[in-house]
Amino acid sequence: MAKVLVATGSGIRSFARDGEADAELVGHPISAISQEFGSLGLAVVDHQHIWQRNYAGEWSIVADAGIPLQSIVGAGATIFAGAMNEAAVLRVSPSGEVERLASFDHVPGREQWLAIGLPLGVRGLTVTADGRVIFAAVHVGGIPFSIDRGDSWLPTIPVMFDVHEVRAHPSRPHLVAAACAVGLCVSQDHGQTWRTFSDGLEITNSLAVGVLEDEVLFSIQDGPFAKRSQIWRWKLGSDHLEQVRDGLPEWLDGKVDSNWITTGKDQAAILDGGGNLWLSQSGSRGWECIAKGLPYSSGLLLL
């Protein structure tokens, strides 16, 4: 049975269709949770501590980053983490050694990055299915990528597309999707080129994205303080977008923020700004609200 972990300011809560299970890391604020570390899981605990979850659901500390973090991802035995209040990426070795990547501090075009609304920060990190390419979503700084485990970085998407989240396909290494202010952006060549999908959208501003095997889900809302959101999908190979319903209301409460769409095991879960947690039956269909009144979350993980 699918289980959704919801990272909150006081621990991780666990939900399935039959109700809430035992909480994890109770009393600890969780500022990031990984969607891409198999069934193990990674989390940023107490703002700057990196923890790892084993198959039994037990957590143990890996490293102290020394600075506040807001994103994290595993690439093999190496962990990458993104800073919250500055555009920095840390690399954590299997032994727990933490290194700030000077290469990321000197990405070509970095002088064009803008702190709009929030401080410059790395909102999201993702790794391709083959583990070869790492992408970082910088607000507002585009999507730098690395093909050598962070030793060097290059820019990809235009900075003014205003990227909010980036996710790699679970099995196709060449495909990456991003939620941007201009709509859904998709690359099918490891980030070398991007196509923007926005036809049919009355609003293009997207904050969250999730990638299933044969479709990409993304949210749209009328700004960072939106009172309502919609979920749309792009089917791989298609030229058009369609709104996701089949159990979801036409408008969800509040915004669907970055890291509030998660996918796994041919299912998806969504958290909306009203604290409602939605779980699909299969792919992006058969939605059911499995929890209500949840507090603000830093992210979801579907096991």
TrEMBL record:
Protein name per its UniProtKB record: Uncharacterized protein
Organism listed in the record: Acidisarcina polymorpha
Cited InterPro entries: WD40/YVTN_repeat-like_dom_sf (IPR015943)
